[in-house]
Amino acid sequence: MSAGSIAVVVPEDIEVPSWDLYEMSIPCTVFGKPHPDLADPWYDLRLCGTGGRPPESRSGPAGSRLTLRTDYGLDGLVGADTVIVPSVPDSCVEEGAPLPSELVTALRRAHAAGARMVSLCTGAFALAEAGLLDGRRATAHWMHTAQLAERYPKVRVDDSVLYVDDGDVLTSAGLTAGLDLCLHLVRRDLGAHIANQLARRMVVPAHRPGGQAQFIDLSVPATDDESLGPVLEWARAHLDQPLTVEGLARRVAMSPRTFYRRLRAATGMTPLQWLLDQRLARARGLLESTDLPIAKVGELSGLGTANNLRHHFLKQLGVSPGDYRRAFPRATNG
Prior knowledge:
CATH superfamily of the largest domain: Class I glutamine amidotransferase (GATase) domain
CATH architecture of the largest domain: 3-Layer(aba) Sandwich
Number of domains: 2
Oligomer: single chain
Shape: globular
Distance between the termini: 51 Å
Low-confidence stretches: 54-58, 218-224
Structural class: alpha/beta
GO molecular function: DNA-binding transcription factor activity; sequence-specific DNA binding
Pfam family, one: HTH_18
Number of strands: 10
Keywords: DNA-binding, Transcription, Transcription regulation
Protein name: AraC family transcriptional regulator
CATH topology of the largest domain: Rossmann fold
């Protein structure tokens, strides 16, 4: 087993939002600090700047941006065993601004030279722009996966997982999921024992259960169909009761077929899927904010018995109700 060399892409001389430093610090923390008692030699880390120019106008809250300088340029990506793109500028994600062509070319060259390519959070947009995700399963932060899928239709985007290991190309969801992926790389390179010991030193779980589906907001989708608003709000207030398409349709004086069609057009979901999402959202809220027994949570959310609640949590969120509750400490006692 060998640690190898890691090259991290840094947006040098480009205004970087301070909140993006988290993703950038993750590979520096995992791979940059030697642990000779665990593996000697440890990883060889180098930071490779894009060499961009500072924008003429500043954006974002005052004092929230900074510029960075590195010892290596993008040519330092070629020859590295692993290349990591922690993120891309917000404008490239939100506004479709082009990525630096030099970066895209360097990523392609590094991959062609045999590098393992890794993205954290929005860094997936850079790998996708380079064509490295075409035909592959990949992920990013769930708030950006829809944009990633729309902009790069050849990518099989999965918004339910913390990270995707597709062999020589790996992608992760946002923020702490990037740490999950970096520890996974250590596990691949140096073995589970060393990865577990490193996780203990960082005071983080070596492996988290479930995927990012457990963090996705399942609140009522926006809809322009005002006629459905009252019945949807009523349904959310009565999730602990038996609800049917026929009964909801009667409340808005529609036929079941018309109600089905209108709700699907408004939310992109069937009535049964919409109800399931709302019941899961209610159950999640109760698990986060109360110490009610699992069976009572199932009853109040309309998901039935504790076993039925557990079934839906595992199927939809990839985590049990008990694990979910432990991941979200109770805010109040109810």
